[in-house]
Amino acid sequence: MKVFYLPLSCNLQVRFKNLTYESTFSDDLCMKPQKSLRARAMDILSRQEISRIGLKRKLAPYAESEEELENVLNEFAERNWQSDQRYAEAYIHSKSRQHGSLRLKQALTQQGIDETLSREFMPDKAHELQTAVAVLRKKFKQPAADLKDKQKQARFLAYRGFDMDTIHAALKSSWDEDDVFEYGEN
Q1: CA–CA separation, 28 vs 103, rounded Å?
Q2: 57 Cβ contact partners less than 8 Å away, ≥ 6 residues apart
Q3: For site-directed labelling of 29, which of 19, 156, 175, 177 has its Cα 20 to 30 A away?
Q4: pTM (two decimals)
């Protein structure tokens, strides 16, 4: 039985018979150089908007000290590369077609966004009612036949983060032909 060796970079050889490799010098020399904390933060922010707390959580395993991490976060905030206000606006814009304001506020609070900061981007009552009706119509194709179905629909809307006033209004007007909402899928 013949064993074939395949030369790889960094003077490593892989033996195909039992999938082991032998190294002629330390594997640490073959590894890619470590990215700086600043470069990691730039990579994360180039892909998506993220809150300060979210960015801190993602960078913490790579930081040598808390001070270094805070310096990078402060620099990015000063240059406006990371903005909690921009994150709140993007998050609310992307999720407000599926969820109510209670769920949006709760999710932003978990990300460390202050309620006063996110309040200006929250949808108004009329838009939230339109969203609740659209979500209800999409999930349930017909009106509730009895109290059990009505409660099921109300629980669904409550899970989506709509308040009780909006839920009651949506349940009353969701299948009325007179109320035509101009809330479509854009």
Answers
A1: 47
A2: none
A3: 19
A4: 0.72
Contact assessment for residue 122 and residue 184, using Cβ atoms and an 8 Å cutoff? no
Q: Which amino acid is at 55?
A: L
Which distant-in-sequence residues (6+ apart) come within 8 Å of 183 by Cβ? Answer: 127, 130, 131, 133, 134
Tokens of 20: 């082991």
Query: What local confidence, expressed as pLDDT, does residue 141 receive?
Result: 86
Kindly report, residue by residue over 13-45, the tens digit of the pLDDT: 444 444 444 545 555 455 667 889 999 999 999
pLDDT category of residue 176 using cuts at 50, 70 and 90: confident
The 10 Å Cβ neighbour count of residue 34 is: 9
DSSP the chain: ----EEE-GGGEEEETTTTEEEESS-GGGTSPPPPPHHHHHHHHHHH----HHHHHHHHGGG-S-HHHHHHHHHHHHHTTSS-HHHHHHHHHHHHTTTS-HHHHHHHHHHTT--HHHHHTTS--HHHHHHHHHHHHHHH-SS--SSHHHHHHHHHHHHHTT--HHHHHHHHHHTT-SS--------
